[in-house]
Amino acid sequence: MKIADTLDVDSTFQHLRSQALASMRDHLDGTRPIVMVGTATCGKAAGALEVLQAIREELAKDQPDARVVEVGCMGHCYAEPLVIINKPGNPPMAYGYVTPEIARRLVRDYVIGDDPSLEFTLGALEENDLIPSIYDLPRFAYEQNIVLKNCGHIDPENIDHYIASGGYEALARALRMQPQEIVEEIKLSGLRGRGGAGYPTWQKWRVCRDSKGRPKYVICNADEGDPGAFMDRAILESDPHSVIEGMIVAAYAVGARYGYIYVRAEYPLAVHRIEIALRQARRRGLLGKNILGSGFDIDIRLFQGSGAFVCGEETALIASLEGRQGLPRHRPPFPAVHGLNGKPTLINNVKTLAYVPRIITNGASWFSSIGTEKSKGTAVFALAGKVVNAGLTEVPMGTTLRQIVFDVGGGIPNGKQFKAVQIGGPSGGCLPQSALDLPIDFDSLREVGAMMGSGGMVVLDEDDCMVEVARYFLEFTQRESCGKCTMCRLGTKQMLEMLKDFTIGQGSMEDLDKLYEMAEDIKEGSLCGLGRTAPNPVLTTLRYFRDEYEAHIKERHCPALMCHDLIAYYVLPHKCERSCDACVGACTVEAISPDRKGIKVIDQEKCVKCNLCLLACPPQYNAIIKLSPPELVPAAKKVK
Amino acid sequence: MEAITITLNGREVSGYPGMTILELARESGVEIPTLCHDPHLAPIGACRICLVEDERSGKLAASCVTPLEPGMVINTESPKVVERRKAIIKLILASHPDSCMVCDKGNQCELRKIASDMGVGLVGFQKIPQLATIEEVNPFIERDLSKCILCAKCIRADHDLVVQGAIDYIDRGFASKPATLNDMPLENSECTFCGTCVAICPTGALMEKKRAYSGTSPVKVSTICPFCGCGCSINLEVKDNQIVRARPGAESAVNRGTLCVKGSYGYDFVHSAERLTSPLAKVNGDFEAIPWEQALALVASELGRLRRTYGPGSLAVLGSSKCTNEENYLLQRFARSVLGTNNIDNGSRLYSAASIIGLGAAVGFPGTTNHLDALEQSEVIMVIGANLTSSAPIVGYAVKRAVRSRGAKLILVDPQRTELASFSHLWLRPRVGTDMALINGMARVIVTESLLDEEFVAGKTDNFEALSKVLEEYTPDYVEGITSVTSEEVSRAARLFAEANVASIVYGTGITQHITGTDSVMALANLAMLTGDIGLRGGIFALQKDCNGQGACDMGALPNLLPGYQCVEDAQSINKFADRWGTDLPSDAGLSAIEMIEHVREGKVKGMYIVGENPALSFPNSTVVKEALASLDFLVVQDMFLTDTAKLANVVLPAASFAEKEGTFTNFEGRVQRVRKAIEPFGDSLPDSEIVLRLANSMGYPMPYSSLQQVMDEIRELVPLYQGIGYRDSETKDIYRAELDKDPLSKRRLFKGQFPSGFGRFHPVQYESPGETPSNGYNFTLLTGSILHHSGTGSKSSRSPRLSEFSPEAYVEIGESDANQVGINQGDKVKVISPLGEVIAAARFTDTLPEGVIFMPNSFPSTPVNQLFDIVLDPQAKTPALKTCAVKLERT
Predict the structure, then answer these.
(1) What domains are defined for chain B?
(2) What digits encode the pLDDT tens for the residues A288-329?
(3) For the domain A567-636, what is the CATH code?
(4) SS (H, E, C) B588-621
(5) For the whole model, what pTM was predicted?
(6) For residue B49, what is the nearest residue in chain A, using CA coordinates?
(7) Which end of chain A is less packed: N or C, by CB atoms within 10 Å?
(8) Class of domain A467-554
């Protein structure tokens, strides 16, 4: 490869940068207010578009000089829709849970007026003397944003925002390096693949670089499919250029001529924003022939997957990209040697690629100073489930589960008891209370039977039945198994049948052993990563919550009172108020009627266990409870 | 390449890099069970049965896909491995129906075999069978996907071997299964019912459709398919003297585990109720069954009488391109030494004489110049005048594989959009009958642009100057004027062909069945010799329509050539045979097939002996041919069925089918392959060889052979091409003991690139209009050809219950706009009229034909298309033009 003309690349980039800064001057000169609305998928789902509309209408009335900018996701998904108002002379202010009405008030009172409306604010985004800063919240003691740094702070549909905030500087720098120097830099940084398995990134790069075939390809794996995981989506929606820049650097390092971003079609907004980003990058000469005057050619295209979970597996993804059915194949040969169209192909996860520009800009030693000994940098988690602050969080590797769940996530809502964390999606495992103080990194998680996976983290509380959780995840993997290999296709089905039996009080202790053996068989005998990790939720729940399984089998008892067939609703006679008819009215199947004394009785034959009576019973009585096993319900007295 | 040494079950063994553990294990005699592995298919590691343990790490790996690594310590039977394997078998059995006892797959079921080998009885899992509707509407394949174990062999065979694309995975997880597009029934899909998937299926999921349970057949006989000239090896499974199924011979280098629908299902003509069971004699216009002795005596006396009365020249013999080499050899000896005439020809006259003559003159070899593997390894393949996927399916598979798997570029030359068009890199669509101008045009581009292999042309060919002189005229513009193929396309095709390192040419009846057939073949030979693509690499592949068209010619069932293409007019040759046979032989060239008919009409030929041919249908102008045959003093026909020709005979002799006799067929490559007897002859029928020998006896000139082995020995002695093809195995007790050498083809190849005469000769040939263009109100050009489900005149295929059920009658393919002009709707009965006759068939709309061109299949006895053709011969090959003629259409 031709070594880039240093001067040429530098001057071309400086020109690009000054252009971007010039066009950004409107925003940066600090003379007019800027209103930023988070319109990533999480924001939109919470009503951000209505909020945006309201702000635009309200501004149109009075002060057209204010700027409205759509930005991505800051990670505080629990507080969406989120609005940031940056007014000259004041620190930028973040407002959460904004409705169109609140938005109109904010425009009137703060953008036009001078009242920062502290009752709606989450805090200021800068330290200041007047208003409490958002960074005083406990979560910020742990969070460290590297790949999420721009998210929610720049307009993802405007490349100038990205360039003005330091974007593509890493590319300009990389193009002045020798490709092998870049691989070396990535090696020194200790970056490991964020797709889940934590394979050292530099090794893939080196193998691909050393492989003979031409042309080479680089693929960004954005087929994020784990239930409850949305980190990649947020990055692509909020900061697509960081991924594209990472891809170009990777392409240069391995000598790839073409790139593909494989993104699932279920992410329409990400698709839209990537398309815009690719178009803008091409127009700026960052893609195409002779990028930045370096003599290096790279084109990147977007490819929409069709929703098969297994296509996140790299060989299946490549098959799908080639227009074939997305079935994994045996490795080796690895894609770095024999990938797309049989050519050497570098395939990395969204986050892995997004780290690359930061590492090039800040240096390998900066990156490797973060994290644990073997897992460098930060980890991005999508916090979901029974946790107060659901959303994205980026913390250094080695942060404990407790810190993430309780300090960043704000703990369990409604005063319930923490039970477990399901980490790593369907390939991961359920970790109990005793693992809360485990510093999380790739290797520690594997030791306890889970895995980093793509970073989904579902918090479970006392109301969650672990057998049911295992069944849920297995049903997912069973459904998403491609069907190619026997172990995964038939084994997961058998496991699922056993788990289903447990949740309805059937099955025996022998089955429990069979389940365990089958899980081990599948783990060792499957063709691809999907099958090899599919038993993890079962194995970890068996390991940490075996008592729950045994309760289901031996006593037909669901400790979490969750498994439909193992519970019954019962009105505690001594608590029933008698004259209240709330439960009777709520019941949709007329299963509740008063006895002679007016105490409500549930006809178990009719009851469909819809839970409406329990919700309807006024809290001051709390007369309706769930019993497990259902046989605990006292036999109804015969009514004469 | 450095060997890799691993420890396998405690023993050190070595393999080569890239070899899988399974391959090395099998080579070392270590058996590892497999379900999804097949030597013809790329491994996918799906079934997981072949797991082995690497004792260094304790990790399990699927041995079929795991390459050797130095230092591996592999245990194929460790407790963990056995436990996992059992788990897999149990998993499969748990989702499998409990119908083993009544499953037609019987003891051939690989799942059942592995389960019993491993001692898996009780499953111990929940039974979750996936019930499926048994699909059995089509006459060939029964699909019961409840027995599918998703080894994907059928899918891979479909994609990687026959390259059809009829089936693929559908759905995911537990619900996934092999299915056609949108899960339609097979008959509504791209499926050709080639049966390859049925043969490769390890369980009873894909089975031959059968009316009754036949169980496991104890006898398997490896023989050669009796249909086209590809020469596929088939295994006939026999029970109670009935063939119960046919499977592709796995070892064959020709078909490599594949077959076509005819090979897989067409054998059932053997058991047709229409088979002749005893000799017949015509008495007062009706046939009467007579004993063999009486029939032979009658034939002997009549032939003898005619010879005595009118001389040997009054007799003519038509041998068969469907009979074995031994039979054709005996028949030509019978004609020459017993009857004393060279009036002997065979059915391949109708389609391959142009190749014999054209290639014989240019290259020195009468036929295909390389083997099928070489075709598949070509970088550029030119297919011209051949609808491969119908007429030579196995060659079609090879071409499609070359394109799909090896990235070969296909130049397709055909006015009709055949199935190969979608595989072509360049599809040239010349006007019907103008191929030769196109070939010359390509040759000119190669010469003028200096794309020729100068070293080859200078060192190994002669007459180049004469060629280049003739080619001058064929400028791209001139060629465009004749062919309507644009000059750019002609140039592109020429450059593509010439610039490839290895290029091959495949041609069929679209070249040979024109009156300029021989010239066209020579033009193709010119092209191959200009680029040096003949000899060591690439080659010319001349297709054959019949199972032994090549062999019948090799055996000298030809009027001017003795066995091994030795000229009858050459004193040395004729003396060699005369000495060997101890008799005088006629030394003037005899009559070719069509000439025989002409001589019958002129009253010069009085008696004919027709073996396994059906000229009443296969010759042009059937009306005249039938009149002529009926006018003979004496006609004896030897056949399996009472064909249209046999109906005209005085005596009909019942012949045994291919499955009822021993011998050899020579396929289009020149590969000599064994035909083996699977069942006893039907009724009183006899193998053709036996009949000829008995007849010679009856005529008082016994031929001194006590076995077919002796016949083959003599062939090897007298026919140079067949020297060294076999060896005697005195240990076995077979009637026919010659086993064939591993590479019987070498004799036919341009060994080490040398032409037999030292030089290949360029033959400058001029394009002439085929003279079959529409005129005088005959405004359509009729193209005829074979179709996938039938062959020849349909004598065999139309009597195959399954083939004829699926493809019962002829049709006329016509473009919709052409049809609109004549007012024809889809399905209308259409009268196709030529100056000589008319046939009626249903119209079928197609978008594959150029305007003004219609297509009809020529293999339906009930719709004798050949009667539309006048008798016009290629002056050199004496092959009648049977490819195209001018017709008009009428709605009936």
Answers:
(1) 4-77 (3.10.20.740), 124-271 (3.30.70.20), 290-348+548-743 (3.40.50.740), 353-542 (3.40.228.10), 780-891 (2.40.40.20)
(2) 999 999 999 999 999 999 888 999 999 999 999 999 989 999
(3) 3.30.70.20
(4) CCCCCHHHHHHHHHCCCCCEEEEECCCHHHHCCC
(5) 0.91
(6) A486
(7) C
(8) mainly alpha
